[in-house]
Structures are given as C-alpha cells and as structure tokens.
C-alpha cells in the first residue's frame, strides 16, 4: 500500500525556535520520490523539494533542511530559526518514479508565534 | 509571473450541472496534474496527463471526470454531473522535469456545488 503519515496535526512554536515536521511513508516500490509542499494561509500550494529514494543525502536550503532515512521510511523537514512567514500547512507526498500518481499526507499546520 | 493560471477562480454551480475548469501553463510543458482539496482537508491526486494522454488516475477520478488539452495549450478538467461532494478547491500543476525540476501549481479554482 502507498501511504504517507504526518502524525503531527498542529504545531506551534515561538519565533526563532527550530521545528521538525515528521513524515513517515509506506510504499511497495523500491524506488520512489518524496516531496514536501507548503500551503500558506493564502491557500496556494508551493513545491519545496523532491527527493529520490536512491539519494539519501540530506538536503539544506537556507533555513530548511530535510532528513531522509530509508531505514525508517521517514522524510522529515526541519525549519531552523522559524519565522512568522513559515506559518502554513506543510504536506509530505510520495510518488513512484514515473511521477504519475501522488499520495499526500494529511498535512501539519505550523503556527509560528511572534 | 506565475507559471500556471487557472480560470475561473471561483465557480458556483447547481448539482447535476457540468463544469469545466481551465488551466493555462505559461510555457510548454509535458507533465500536467489535477488535484483537489476539500476545505480543511488534505490534497488529493486526481489525474496525471503526459503527452496528451492520461498517465494515471485516482479512484476519485471516475466516469464523471475527464481531462483534455483541446488546443495544445489549455488543460481542462470537466465534471459532467456535479455532486455536492465535488465542492472543493481544484489545483492544476505542471512538473518541469527538465532544467528546474520544479512543480508549479496554479492558484486553484474553488468549486461550490449547491
């Protein structure tokens, strides 16, 4: 079965704190893609990152970093020194390598308090 | 300038009516997707479209749904006979799997079925 679980429904942090959003997935595929998206209060969807299953290197982009661990089927997302603008719902998703079908988690709503 | 535009931004229709949602990518792309998001819920994959054909569709994408690219530019999602439960935000997306390897989402069409 293809499934993405984001167990944290809502998280609140104070500005400048670090926060990690968890994502655990299940897949029957040996190779696949993992994604993170941001949906700010305005409602649009913003692509953040795509990761191949065969590339377990962690990725850093500014204050964002992603930790992919195939052994635990997790693809966690950390925001360092959070800012109010980081307040959004964050979705993790999974697809096979064709990228033809996507499975989304239920999202984590992050609120950064000034 | 956004890579993807969608029209209309909001569509109100009576149950049983047909609706057509339109997506216009700014430049030539090959990989198209439709997603829907019922208010307050997760993003759900509907269908992927590559090279003018459906690549994959989800269980949600039943016979009431169809997609086409009528003029090589617009990408449309048609719902033949709308139901109350079709009320949702519908997002079109493209995946530039070339140089940028980035997914771009349209701003969405809010469909309200009365």
Uncertain stretches of chain A: none
- Biggest sheet overview of chain B: 7 strands, mixed
Strand content of chain A: over 45%
| Series of secondary-structure elements of chain A, N-terminal to C-terminal | EEEEEEEEEEEE
Task: Give an overview in words.
- The complex is a heterodimer of chains A (114) and B (114).
- Chain A has 114 residues and is mostly beta strands.
- Helix content of chain A is 0%, strand content 54%.
- Chain A has strands at residues 3-5, 10-14, 19-21, 24-26, 32-39, 46-52, 59-61, 64-69, 74-79, 88-96, 102-104, 108-113.
- In chain A, strand 8 (64-69) and strand 9 (74-79) form a beta hairpin.
- Helix content of chain B is 0%, strand content 54%.
- Chain B contains no helices and eleven strands.
- Chain B has strands at 4-7, 10-13, 19-25, 31-37, 44-50, 53-57, 65-68, 75-79, 88-96, 102-105, 109-113.
- Chains A and B meet through strand 5, strand 6 and strand 11 of A and strand 4, strand 5, strand 9 and strand 10 of B.
């Amino acid at each position: 079965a293809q499934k993405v679980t984001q167990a944290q429904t809502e998280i609140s942090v104070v500005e400048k704190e670090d926060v990690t959003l968890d994502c655990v997935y299940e897949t029957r595929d040996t190779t696949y893609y993992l994604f993170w998206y941001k949906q700010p209060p305005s409602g649009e969807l913003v692509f953040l990152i795509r990761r191949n299953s065969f590339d377990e290197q962690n990725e850093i982009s500014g204050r964002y970093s992603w930790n992919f661990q195939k052994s635990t089927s997790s693809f966690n997302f950390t925001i360092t020194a959070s800012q109010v603008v980081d307040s959004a719902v964050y979705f993790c998703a999974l697809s096979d390598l064709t990228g033809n079908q996507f499975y989304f988690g239920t999202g984590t709503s992050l609120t950064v308090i000034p | 300038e956004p890579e993807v535009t969608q029209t209309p931004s909001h569509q109100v229709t009576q149950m049983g009516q047909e609706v057509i949602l339109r997506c216009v990518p700014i430049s030539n792309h090959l990989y198209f997707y439709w997603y829907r998001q019922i208010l307050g819920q997760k993003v759900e994959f509907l269908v992927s479209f590559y090279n003018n054909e459906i690549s994959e569709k989800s269980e949600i994408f039943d016979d009431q749904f169809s997609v086409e690219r009528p003029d090589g530019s617009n990408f449309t999602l048609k719902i033949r006979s709308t139901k109350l439960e079709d009320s949702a935000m519908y997002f079109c997306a493209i995946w530039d799997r070339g140089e940028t390897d980035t997914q771009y989402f349209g701003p969405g069409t809010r469909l309200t079925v009365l």
